Each structure stands twice: as C-alpha cells, then as structure tokens.
User: Fold this.
Amino acid sequence: MPLKDIRFVIGQKKYKMNANPFTRRDFIKSMAFSGIILPFIPKNFMIQSEKGKRIGIIGLDTSHSVAFTKSLNLDTQNTSFDGFKIVAAYPYGSRDILSSTERIPGYTEDVRKLGVEIVGSIQELLKKVDYVLLETNDGRLHLDQAIEVFTSGKTTFIDKPIAASLADTKAIFREAERYQVPIFSSSSLRFATGMSAVKEGKIGQILGAETYSPMKFEKTHPDLFWYGIHGVEMLFTVMGTGCVSVQRTISEQEELCTGIWKDGRIGTFRGLKSGKQDYGGTAFGKTGILTLGPYNGYDPLLLQIIHFFKTGIPPVQKAETLEIVAFMEAADVSKQKKGAMVKISNP
Assistant:
C-alpha cells in the first residue's frame, strides 16, 4: 500500500502519513503529550525546520548529541529555541575509543526516532543544514572535521574538548579565521548555577576561586582534556584569562591543579578520582563568597549556542579557550616533572 494511503490515530486526532515529513506542530506535539512511546514513530518521520534554522550534528558518540536533539526537537514550549531543529546527523565519531564507539549504534537510533535524518558523510550533512554542532567525543578528529565544515562557511559550535592538543586548537582557530567562520567551544559547566551571578559582578571583583569535577582518563588524550576540562572551564569562567603558571599535585584519591594569575590571584581545580562525583566550586569576591553549581543540564549551553547561531557572536572568546587548553597541557608537563611549577606561555 502506498504511504499516502496510510492513516492512523493518536489520541483523538487522525493523521495521514504520506511521502512528505510530518509537521512538528502536529506530530511531535501529539507524541509528546499523548504518552506514545518514541520507538513507534513511523520510520520515514523527519523533522522539518525552515531554511536558516536547520542544524546538523557530527558525532553520535556522546550523550550530548541526544540531549541537544531532545531539547530542540521535542521542547515545543521553549520559544527561546526560536524554531531551530536538528534535522540531520553524521554518526562518526570516534572509531577507536571503546567508550565512544559502543554508544554510536544506540545514539544513532535515539536521534533517528526524534526525526533526524542519518547521513553517510560530512559533505552530505552540509548540503542539508545551515549550522553545525561538532559533537565528536574524540578531540583528535576535530581539526580535520572542522576544516571540512569551514570550507562550507557554516557557523560551528565545537563541543569539549575543542581538540586533543594546543597545537590542534590553534590550528582550528587559524582555519576558522581563514574561512571567516564564527566558532566557539565550551563545556556545559560554564553555564552552571551561580556562574552568571559571578560574571554579573554580584560578589564584586574576583579574588580567587576553587572548582572541582570528576576526573576520568582516556589514554588517547592528555589527562585533563577528557573530563577534567569541565572543572577547568568553570575555573576560567570565574577567573578569566591571565594564568601564568600551574602546579599539579597527585594522590590516589584526587588531584589538585594550582594556577597563579599574573595579578597574583590563585585559582585551583580539584579532580575527583574517588568518592562522590560531582561538579561545583566556590568563587571568592571582594564583597562576597558564592557557591558554584550544581550542574543544571545542557539547556543553558544550548540557549547560548542558538543565540550564537543567530548573531555570529561567540559567548566564549578565543583567548580564553586557548588559555584553558594551555593550562591543561601545562598540567601534564607538571605531572611529568613530578609536580614542578610550569610556566604557561602566551598561547
């Protein structure tokens, strides 16, 4: 029977299924509010979004891809997303990090059920979208993938880690400038509870800060790049740029990276390797002390990404991202030098 002849009922509302994708307004809204389980969405269902608001994902090896898709494609009540939708995705993605590769089949099905078209290459993806989320969990791949996107001129968000080395990070920014493509990279923890209050000056001039996050390791990446980056990003969000040295202290249960800023301020990142795993910290200001955290999900970051897509103005500056990466790389050198203080050269 041709697809155009199939009819079905959800709740009390009748639908006609044809060769064209269903509209978000009719289908997704009814699925979300009628209690229908997502695996029963018709196989040819695809999300539509007006040209200029179509987002593509590269990398279905991270939970971030699924979380972003759920927020944009299902949250019809959030007008802040302004009609932007994930319409296509290329699954790869790491090919040799087991914790990433084993996720790809399941996450591919998850986003497919949310109306996303799965494509076979980055070039195919670029023909269908206006903006790109580079979500690949493997930072080693980001430079090559980013260049392929930049040649299309499409504004790009690059998820953490922006790369697996300072050299690659510099190259990504250099190529973005060459092709005049707006980019930014960030951990979602940059927008955790309390961070905006610090940036708005609620506790006055920042005199110092301490942050913490889980510290998991991946042998293909420098130690802090894989998971410690969350806490490091929080630290630099509060302290700003200007870190001139870092010293790393290691124990079996935790690690402490102590940064000295050029104005004499001290900021520390504590990597949690055992015990309770969480994200947070404390900001010390001239007029108050503020607790940072808890983590409040991906939507605060996603709202920043959508604003960035609309304006082309990155919420995180190149200089800060480069210094974050330089700090993490220098922390590895400190480890190799048995905890010696390592100077951070101007990235």
Observations:
- The CA atoms of residues 69 and 251 lie 39 Å apart.
- The two ends are 63 Å apart (CA to CA).
- The first strand starts at residue 6 and ends at 10.
